[in-house]
Every structure is written in structure tokens, then in C-alpha cells.
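Review box. Two proteins, two foldings.
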Amino acid sequence: MSRSIRLGLGCAMPKPPIISAKEVLRLLLKYGCELVSVKGSHFKIHNPTTNRTSVIPVHGNRDISKPFLNAILSQLDIDSDDFFEFH
């Protein structure tokens, strides 16, 4: 039995794909977010629709973990369903 059912949480969020930070950055820019600044390997992204900002670390071709990707989308106030359908 899955943890979400045992906890009575109902349907869980769709599982995000495992993708690199570069790919996440590219998709967010395509989604309509704007690049605000770059400091080293950290890219600051702004969502003009919701007026929210998040920082994405881009370290080579390393993948972003699923919880971290969900946190980025939450910080930018982007619905994960919409983002992954857009993907």
C-alpha cells in the first residue's frame, strides 16, 4: 500500500520526470519565466505571472531530485500538472 493512501492523503501529485537542471531551466524559460541574474552556477528565475522568484543551481549535467523540482515549482507558484503537461 502506498504511503499516500496509508496517510489518507488521497491522490498524490504526478511524479516529475528525472531531468537535468539545464533542462529545468530551459523549460521554465519556455514556460514564460524570466532569467533575472546568474551568480556562479546559480540562476535566479522570476515568474512574471505570479511575481515569484526561485534559484536553480546548475552544476554540470547533474539531475535535479524530484522533491527539489517540486520545491522550485512551488516557489514559482507553478502548478506541477500544468508544467508537466506543457513539458
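Next protein.
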Amino acid sequence: MCVISQDLLKTPTRVRERVMASLAAQQPFVVEKHENALRGQRAELIAAVKAASFRVIGYYFPCERRDAIRRSLQRAEGEESMKLLMKPARSLSTRQEKCDSPH
């Protein structure tokens, strides 16, 4: 099983390329942490996965922004947490508004 990590690949384009390569090789995979993907981006990947006769299992965990920030601060990756805190509150709000739930 291949784990396709958004954290490691850094861009949605790289994630998509790795998914498509796994589909072409008929290799089972998991897309880990595909956060902030817009509904259209998710739909495109899901359609490709289903067309290749793979099974899709998706998880969605709703949370409040303040809870997400609190969890980020508790992570061992303190430097990344500090970057999050240094972003203006407006930036975080705008990012949250751009995201849409799978429902």
C-alpha cells in the first residue's frame, strides 16, 4: 500500500500526479491529509479512482478553527505551529471560508 502524503508532496498537483500513477499501476493507496481541497478537486480525484474500479473511503472531521489552532500548538512541530500563529487572523478566516465540507 502506498501512502500519498500532502505534507511530503507539498502541492495538490503532486498529490494528483501520485494518485494517477498509483491508479495506472493498479497499486492500492491512501491519500493522507488532503486538507483544504475544494469540492471540485475532491470530485475529480474520486471520479478517477472510481473509473479505475478502486473503492473510495473518505473521512471528514469537522472542527472549529480555535480547536484546530489549539491542537497545532500541542504538536511536536513547534516551528510549524509558530508559523500558523504568525498568520493574520484574517488570513485564517479567509482560508476557512474557501474550504467547503463534503456535505
